[in-house]
Amino acid sequence: MPLAHKKHLVPLLGALLCLLLAASLAWANAASLVNKALEAHREGEYELAMKLYNRAIDSGELNIGSLAMAYNNRAALWADLGKLKPALKDYELAQDLQATNPLFYTNRGLTYQRWGQYHRALDDYNRALELDQGDVQALTAKAWLLATCPLASLRNGPQAVDLASQAVSISRDPNTLDTLAAALAENKKFLAAVRIEQQALAILRGPYGDDEEPPPGMERRLKLYAKKQPYREPMPKKKVQGKEGQDNASEDKPPEVKPSAAKPPEATAPQAKPAAPKP
N or C: which end of the chain has fewer CB within 10 A? Predict the structure, then answer.
């Protein structure tokens, strides 16, 4: 290459590097907004979280994966605010961007479940497991629904035990163990349910019993199993039965259900928000 051309090439390369760096910084700033929104969401600062999610999404600087995660997280926020329709719209936008991510189907299923739309929730859990048979979040969510659904027609104790056992074999944590205990209780194996629930509580409390205070729901379930009673999710208020067994519910604030994931570690890329905290 002639020397004159090389001289022109150097500033061009420099300009290109500057553009790449600027794009990288813009993405990092937008991704940081999503993570700040997630932190505000966890702290219950919903108004701030919504503003930050909106800024990140509207910035146009997020890549496809980060934008999909931002929609997923904002959907979870809409659900926590008691708004079903915008939550479902955001989950649909996330799925349009990343149709093969099982998390978005599991989280939408959890949102349907919060409003008593159990058949639609089950459809989403099945779709998530079609995408990844070993997805712990989908395994746990489906097992929980089959074990604790207030609709007897949807409960399936043996399948719930099988799914929960798979989840525990992949990740033995309080969430999967709690689910397995509920499935065992649905199968009238109450002694085993008590033992497994105690293990879940022990992990949360740590070796000295003071690591983390367990959710009240876990203590209540343990007492139920000790009395040889299974656990049932409460039916949402103002529930209206739809056609062909599809359940429809009002947009009143629904009861809480199990999370689709444990609290994720902090990272540069936007992190996932579970659809709902556990009761």
Answer: N
pLDDT tens for the chain, residues 1 to 279: 554 444 454 444 444 443 333 344 555 778 888 888 889 999 999 999 999 999 999 988 888 998 999 999 999 999 999 999 999 999 999 999 999 999 999 999 999 999 999 999 999 999 999 999 999 999 999 999 999 999 999 999 999 999 999 999 999 999 999 999 999 999 999 999 999 999 999 999 887 656 667 788 999 999 999 999 999 999 887 543 344 334 444 444 444 444 333 333 333 445 555 555 456
CATH architecture of 136-232+241-259: Alpha Horseshoe (1.25)
Show me where the domains of the chain are located: 136-232+241-259
Q: Is the dihedral of CA 272, 232, 198, 128 positive or negative?
A: negative
